[in-house]
Amino acid sequence: MKFVFFGAPGAGKGTMASRASTAFGLPHISTGEIFRGAMREGTPLGLQVKAVIESGGLVSDELTIGLVRERLAKDDAAGGWLLDGFPRTIAQAEALASFCPEDHVIDLQVSDAKVIERLSGRRMCKGCGRIFHTRFMPPSKPGICDDCGAALYTREDDREESVRVRLENYRGQTMPLVDYYTARGTLVSVDGEADADAVWADLRAVMEGLIAAEKA
Ligand code: AMP
Known about the structure:
This protein has about 220 residues and is of the alpha/beta class. It has nine helices and eight strands. The chain has a single domain (about 1-25, about 80-215), classed as P-loop containing nucleotide triphosphate hydrolases (Rossmann fold, 3-Layer(aba) Sandwich). Adenosine monophosphate binds next to helix 2 and helix 3.
C-alpha cells in the first residue's frame, strides 16, 4: 500500500514513517533524508541543494520530482511505500498522481507551539539519520545515537531563522495540498500532538484499518 506522510515541519512525519516502515515492512522514503545523505557525502546533488536546504527553502520541483520518480521505480518500492516530505507543492502532488498515485495521505496535525518546541530540541544522528529530542526522545547517552553509536547534531535548518522560512513555505506552498487530497478522497487526519508512543498507537490502528479494508 502507498502512503504519503504529510504535515508541518516537526509534525512527526519522520519518526512515524520510520516506525510504520518497521511495523508494515514498507520502505521509508524521505526526500529530506535523501538530500541530507547527498550533502553528507558531498555528491553533486548534495552540493547543488546544500544552500537552499540550510536556509529553509524548498528544492526545485523538477529536481525533487525526478529524484522521487527514480526512487519509486526501484524494486523495493514495487509493493508499496511510505513517502515522507514529498509532495510539498501542488506540482509535486500532480506529478506523483501521474506516475505512482498514492492510496492514502496521513495528515499529522500539530499546533504551531508544538512544532516550535519539537524543532528546537530535535537532534539527528550523523550516521543513520535517526531522530531524537533532548526532552521528548532523549538518547540513552547524551549526544550519541542509540542505534549506531554515531554523534547527534542539530540540523542547520532547525535553527530559528530557517524554521521561520520553512513554516512560511509550509503555509504558502504545502498546506494547499490538504484541499487537493481532500478532493481526491485520500486524506486521513491523525492527531499528532501527543508524545510519540501515543501518536504511534493511534496511527498504527488507523493504518491497520486501511490495510484491512484494502484486503477485504
Ligand atoms: P525534511 O527532512 O522533510 O524536513 O526536509 C528537509 C529539507 O529538504 C526541506 O526543508 C527542503 O529544503 C528539502 N526538501 C525535502 N523534501 C522536499 C520536497 N518534496 N520539495 C522540496 N524540497 C524538499
